[in-house]
TrEMBL record:
Principal localisation: cytoplasm
Entry binding sites for sn-glycerol 3-phosphate: 80, 108, 110, 162, 215, 225-227
Swiss-Prot/TrEMBL keywords: Cytoplasm, Lipid biosynthesis, Lipid metabolism, NAD, NADP, Nucleotide-binding, Oxidoreductase, Phospholipid biosynthesis, Phospholipid metabolism
Protein name: Glycerol-3-phosphate dehydrogenase [NAD(P)+]
NCBIfam families cross-referenced by the UniProt entry: PRK00094.1-2, PRK00094.1-4, PRK00094.2-1
One Gene Ontology CC term in the entry: cytosol
Length: 296
């Protein structure tokens, strides 16, 4: 009935949770994993409900390679990011391959490690098809509280943008700028992501909830966050390629920052924090020069 596609940190955590409710759930990934219920991709595609948890920048290629197999499937997307090649949100990418009524998105403050420990977690499931969102919410055990919403744009932008602000927060921490500075950065980051999201039709309230402020506060304040750790290490002068090699897992904010920068340039949206993160990552701008420009 349910297949999790992607067995990285988040895919394996979601599978751990769902398996407690849906005993015959299965999981698959590019590389075989020693997980009970691990099956081939073809086997996983036999189920009607798919939960896709692969790196956001890989989704378009994955869907193109499997375009026939995903037809009419009910899909829950757990990835957080904006495609920086097509400059499209993930819902737009999926709509190139299936109907928007077959797609839902799940996002919120959820470190994989804590989900694997069955710690209380709250997530939003957003879809233009609220019945589908409700159906997916039934797959989760009691320690995961799910909220249903139709603001797909807002939930997507919130989950993607918070990773970019988390990198900036890590830089702030790494430069030892203090709690005042970090609080200012995070609060302005929330305003910035809401401004960006509203341009694309998102609801402002979404950014006040778990998908927005909740996930931002979590990710921008913890070394459990890969994106936060990217920022910490950038502030210490490490090279991005070395940081990502050491991480061994995806830091989506690195790639999302480019998508936000280019979309903001294209549509003249004011995104000062994301712009500086992009310049630090892709133009090798000095972090202190970036800080001065942000404060000016
Ligand atoms: N780790 C966490 O705490 C959370 C992560 N997420 C999101 O979940 C998504 C996956 O992240 P993680 O599992 O944490 O990262 P990860 O780096 O542990 O796993 C990434 C997964 O994507 C797969 N993948 C990468 N490129 C692929 C391709 N071309 N084709 C097929 N599969 C491919 C990898 O095999 C791996 O299974 C990201 O968008 C992340 O933002 C969301 C909430 C929590
Ligand atoms: O999305 C997450 C928590 O909600 C995980 O954050 P990182 O990708 O920064 O580790």
């Amino acid at each position: 009935m349910v297949s999790v596609i992607g067995a990285g940190a988040w895919g394996s955590a979601l599978y751990h949770a769902i398996k407690q409710k849906i005993k015959n759930a299965v999981i698959t990934s590019r590389h075989k994993r020693n997980i009970e219920g691990f099956v081939s991709l073809d086997e996983a595609f036999k189920n009607e409900y798919l939960i896709i948890v692969i790196a956001a920048q890989s989704i378009d290629d994955f869907l193109r390679e499997n375009r026939e197999k995903i037809k009419n499937k009910k899909i829950l997307v757990a990835s957080k990011g904006i495609d920086n090649k097509k400059l499209k949100f993930l819902n737009e990418i999926f709509e190139e391959y299936t109907d928007k009524n077959n797609i839902a998105f799940i996002s919120g403050p959820s470190f994989a490690k804590e989900v694997k420990q069955n710690k209380p977690t709250a997530l939003v499931i957003a879809s233009k098809n609220l019945n589908l969102a409700e159906k997916f919410s039934e797959f989760f055990p009691p320690f995961i509280k799910t909220y249903i919403d139709d603001d797909v744009e807002g939930v997507e932008v919130a989950g993607a943008y918070k990773n970019v602000i988390a990198i900036a927060a890590g830089v702030c921490e790494g430069l030892n700028l203090g709690s005042n500075a970090k609080a200012a950065l995070i609060s302005r980051g929330l305003v910035e992501m809401a401004r960006f999201g509203e341009f694309f039709g998102a609801k402002k309230d979404t950014f006040l909830g778990v998908a927005g402020s909740g996930d931002l506060f979590l990710t921008a304040n913890s070394t459990m966050s890969r994106n936060y750790r990217v920022g910490l290490n950038l502030a210490k002068g490490k090279l991005l390629e070395d940081i990502l090699d050491e991480l061994g897992e995806v830091a989506e904010g690195v790639f999302t920052s480019k998508a936000i920068y280019l979309l903001a340039q294209k549509h003249d949206i004011y995104t000062p924090i994301a712009n500086e993160v992009y310049k630090i990552l892709y133009q090798k701008k000095n972090v202190l020069d970036s800080l001065k420009d942000l404060m000016s």
